[in-house]
Amino acid sequence: MGKNSHIEWTHHTFNPWWGCAKVSDACKHCYAEAIVRRFGGAQWGVKGERRFFDENHWKEPLKWNREAVRDGVRYRVFCASMADVYEDRPDLIPERAKLWTLIQKTPALDWLLLTKRPENAQRLSPYGEKWPANVWLGTSVENQELAEKRLPELNAVPAKVRFLSCEPLLGALDLSAFTKKKTIHWIITGGESGPGSRPMNPEWVRNLRDFCVKKGVAFHFKQWGQWAPATTKSLRQKSTFSFAEEGGEMVSLGKAISGRRLDGKTHDEFPSI
Questions:
Q1: What is the pLDDT of residues 138-195, one digit of tens each?
Q2: Domains of the chain, residue spans
Q3: Which of 43, 145, 155, 245 is the most exposed place for a label (fewest CB within 10 A)?
């Protein structure tokens, strides 16, 4: 959990618990699992124990809500960076109930629920056909296979804001079949970072950007990650690079150096509420 999160598309992060189980290729180099291994207190996988928190932890968003009211602003809260709200396990039922109560008590916060299990979202949420405006539902989509599997599940949920996290982006995406009526309001994308990171083709990112411009969807480019488009200078600095088909050469520079500019521009769009 953290106030003033370093994640570019949110203000704060809140985790109702720690721990999850891998479900798709994007989970291969899960940063949350690496953090859990470093600090302990939870185990990854279907049979792993989840780490729960005391009441002081649950009081933090109440403070953020008071600050938002005081300052006359809205804060975005990413929930959950170290877990999946819609992981369907008996031990998570009471914690999820506490989360719904907390969301109800914090109407000045926009809660961003990002899941790799959108098929569970409607069933495990208490909202029925009337989702509150401050609960945004998103799903992770790293390739076309997962787009075709998860987007219909996401679109079936009557959330006021529906969004995609295409990070790490592992393949080209054609979303036209799922957005004919502007059912997606926001797309976040970015490359993988950390050990073993897989390069991202710049053309995949440009295609998403152009799609968003055409459809009027907010577009947020989070990062290149470990690999960035190669320049003559960068190739002199690093000899290790990968060729991305039709996207040019990619060079391993590290997240900090690679940055988050796409064709000379930073994309920080957010959906209009």
A1: 999 999 999 999 999 999 999 999 999 999 999 999 998 877 667 899 999 999 998 8
A2: 12-266
A3: 245
Omega cis (within 30) before 26: no
Structure tokens at 19: 């721990």
Which is higher by pLDDT, 213 or 34? 213
Cβ(136)–Cβ(110) below 8 Å: yes
Give CA angle at 235 (229, 237), nearest 5°.
120
Kindly report the backbone phi and psi dihedral angles of residue 97, in degrees, each rounded to the nearest multiple of 5, phi listed first. -65, -40
CA distance to 30, 145, 146, 220, 270, per residue, from 180 (Å): 32, 19, 18, 20, 20
> Mean pLDDT, to the nearest integer, of 121-133?
97
Burial class (CB in 10 A: 0-12, 13-18, 19+), 93: exposed
CATH topology of domain 12-266: TIM Barrel (3.20.20)
212-268 residue pLDDT tens: 999 999 999 999 999 998 875 655 555 455 554 566 788 888 999 999 999 999 999
